[in-house]
Design a protein that fits this description.
Blueprint lengths: L4 H15 L1 E14 L4 E18 L6 E4 L5 E4 L4 E6 L15 E5 L2 E11 L7 E11 L1
Antiparallel strand pairs: 1-2, 1-6, 2-5, 3-4, 5-8, 6-7, 7-8
């Protein structure tokens, strides 16, 4: 019997919702670019409300972690690791520029510094995301 990965995504979402915290993943798209002045005019934001399990890195100094096989991420003291269900989110792990994404939770805006997906069967079920606090929202 084949596994229904859409059901697995929903199960992961419900499990994390039960024990996690509410977060919003925001995608900021740029509306226009002026090549003459090399400026971007305006942005449009798309919000994806979801839930996450929040953990803090325990290292006292900067450390390099491998979220997946192809990329290393340097985490600093105060950075967080979030575990998010993929249900209802775009595939953040294949994003061209993580700078276009940010996470809002705990009254702060967080920059995504690294992300990896858990993909049994080739379908993202969970995202492991390293984030760094930017500013209050």
């Amino acid at each position: 019997m084949a596994t229904d990965w859409a059901v697995e995504q929903l199960d992961a979402y419900n499990s994390i919702k039960e024990d996690g915290v509410a977060v919003t993943v925001r995608y900021n798209s740029f509306t226009s670019y002026d090549p003459k002045t090399d400026t971007i005019a305006g942005t449009a934001a798309t919000d994806y409300p979801t839930y996450a399990i929040n953990t803090q890195f325990k290292e006292k100094d900067d450390v390099t972690v491998h979220l997946n096989r192809s990329e290393a991420t340097t985490v600093r003291r105060g950075d967080r690791m979030l575990l998010l269900p993929a249900y209802g989110l775009p595939d953040i792990s294949n994003a061209g520029s993580l700078g276009e994404y940010e996470v809002h939770y705990n009254s702060y805006k967080w920059k995504i510094i690294g992300v990896a997906s858990v993909e049994p069967g080739g379908i993202p079920v969970l995202f492991k995301m390293a984030v760094r606090r930017l500013s209050p929202v």
